[in-house]
Amino acid sequence: MNDRVRFFLRFLIVTAGALIMAVNLNTFVYTAGLLPGGFTGISLLIQEVFQKFLHIKIPFALFYWGLNIIPALICFRYVGKRFTLLSVWAIIASGLFTDLFPGLRMTDDVMLCSIFGGIVNGIAISFCLLAGATSGGTDFISIYVSEKTGRSIWNHIFVFNVVILVTFGLLFGWTRALYSIIFQFVSTQILNTLYKRYQKSTLLIITDKPDEVILVIREVTGHDATLFTGKGCYQGAERKMLYTVVSSDEEEKLLRSIKKTDPLAFVNILQTKMLKGNFIMKRQD
Known about the structure:
alpha+beta; elongated
């Protein structure tokens, strides 16, 4: 697949994510009076303040676009140009779609809106992230910090969103704010499940083909491995074990390639909670 076709497919996925996000806002968020986290939530909060206290209705897109200008410039400079351009398109598209397209009439139950709205929101943001972009706002900040530190900070962003929701509760009532926290919690967990770029996995691979497996690890992930020699206690035969750490989003692809190279390989995959050292991440383009 050439570079242009790949970029076009990424563009389509980002557009789909922006459309899902807009429909979700008009279907679940507006119906239940919820406030999503991040810059989307701040935009809706400002929009509601203008409407309630000043009796002025301003399109959602204007606030949303304005808040994203500075984070977009930072990411364009420090993260990646194509990444930022696709993200800017996601911001423009989601803003336009939100103001132009109506939502679906599905339920008035606030709890159902909180749970399923959070699920759909997490899926929509994951579409953008998996295509090498973001939906803007705090996602820009998350990616920037994660690129610099190599660590996922989605749960830290959740805390920031709770602060926004507390402000929302003080202004418009705690019931809507508490339901919005449920919405945001569900969305965050979906993100942590679907997007694993900044999570790490440790692989312990016992194989009789260490040289071939090392080449597979390098080809699939760009990382290397450390070779240990030991003795199998059952048969007393010499065994080779490879130790490597990879991004969790590469885990399944690498495992399939290892099994294709050595069907008899014994692979133990461990979740890496903390990693210190020189771990090279593939840069966003």
